[in-house]
Design brief:
Layout (H helix, E strand, L loop, with lengths): L2 H13 L6 E4 L7 H5 L8 E4 L5 H8 L4 E6 L1 H6 L2 H15 L6 E5 L9 H14 L4
Parallel strand pairs: 1-2, 2-3, 3-4
Helix pairs in contact: 5-6
């Protein structure tokens, strides 16, 4: 339903000289990856995915020309314990930190405004503990 409008927006942006994008795939889009690939997104576009998407599968599909981002559950960030957030962040980092295109740790959809500060700290701590390259 929305793809023709997304395609139109991207065509207009490209006509206006925009060369860098961030594309967020909210929800389960595993079966729709081909539509997004057909947008001819410029290399180094950041593609962020919801927790419903297997981020390794998305990385394999889009390849090393794209930066993948995500996908710590927003629900875990707002309702989970700091330990749960830390472990969820660690899991995503360990899956993705060597993706050749690059990886950005972030919430799956948005950062809920009432996220407990300790949960944000737990995400940052996991990034510091597990996110460095060796």
């Amino acid at each position: 339903f929305s793809f023709p409008y997304i395609a139109f927006i991207h065509e207009e942006l490209q006509k206006r000289g925009v060369s860098s994008y961030q594309e967020h795939l909210c929800g389960q889009h595993k079966d729709d990856f081909g539509y997004f690939k057909s947008l001819s997104l410029p290399p180094r576009t950041c593609i962020s995915v919801d927790e419903q998407v297997d981020i390794k599968q998305a990385a394999a599909f889009f390849g090393e020309d794209y930066i993948l981002a995500g996908n710590v559950s927003s629900a875990t960030l707002i309702c989970g314990t700091p330990q749960e957030v830390y472990q969820a962040s660690r899991h995503v980092i360990e899956q993705m930190k060597y993706h050749p295109g690059g990886f950005i740790l972030m919430p799956s959809c948005d950062l809920p405004p009432y996220t407990p500060p300790l949960n944000l700290y737990a995400m940052l701590k996991a990034a510091r503990d597990f996110g460095s390259y060796q």
